[in-house]
Design goal:
The chain is α+β, with helices and mostly antiparallel strands. It is built from three helices and twelve strands; from the N terminus they run αββαβββββββαβββ.
């Protein structure tokens, strides 16, 4: 009986707080996710593991153009990882591979593999973002499902932790 009480006490003092702390971190601060597919190449690759931080958008405002975000899309059970290219209140279009924001070509400082369909000028509603994969010819993105509500963004990809040869910040 004493052994059972000691084991139960050890569990309540050590294991339970560790589980609760891990759940808190995963729910509110950060979580690990796996990149699935080639839609973010050459920036991110299939089966890379990244850390997604969840706190900055809650504390310091929504996403910025160029952020790589993990999001959910209604009707798709998988979480997607994409780059924010247009914000609420802007009009986005894609012509011959060039993104236009309010009619002005977007200077993309990130690596892109061009391709995919053109997209007609479309207003992005306030509280929404327009996301694209960096591998434009092989990406299921806002050209298919439209602008995404900011509330559907899980967080921002910040750090690659696997494979070890590619450890570093997400750019």
């Amino acid at each position: 009986m004493r052994l059972l009480v000691r084991v139960l006490r050890e569990f309540l003092e050590t294991v339970l707080p560790a589980i609760l702390l891990a759940l808190f971190i995963n729910t509110f601060l950060a979580q690990a996710t796996v990149v699935r597919g080639q839609s973010m190449e050459p920036t991110l690759h299939d089966n890379q593991r990244v850390i997604v931080e969840k706190l900055s958008y809650r504390l310091f405002g929504g996403p910025h153009r160029g952020d790589i975000v993990v999001l959910t899309v209604p009707g798709n059970p998988d979480r997607l990882i994409k780059r924010v290219v247009a914000l609420g209140g802007e009009t986005v279009a894609i012509q011959d591979g060039q993104i236009l924001i309010d009619g002005i070509p977007l200077a993309e400082s990130w690596a892109v593999r061009w391709g995919g369909p053109d997209y007609p000028p479309t207003p992005v509603p306030e509280g929404y973002v327009f996301v694209l994969g960096d591998n434009r010819g092989h990406s299921n993105d806002s050209r298919s499902f439209g602008p995404v509500p900011v509330q559907n963004i899980v967080g921002r990809a910040v750090f690659i932790y696997w494979p070890l040869s590619e450890v570093g910040l997400v750019r």
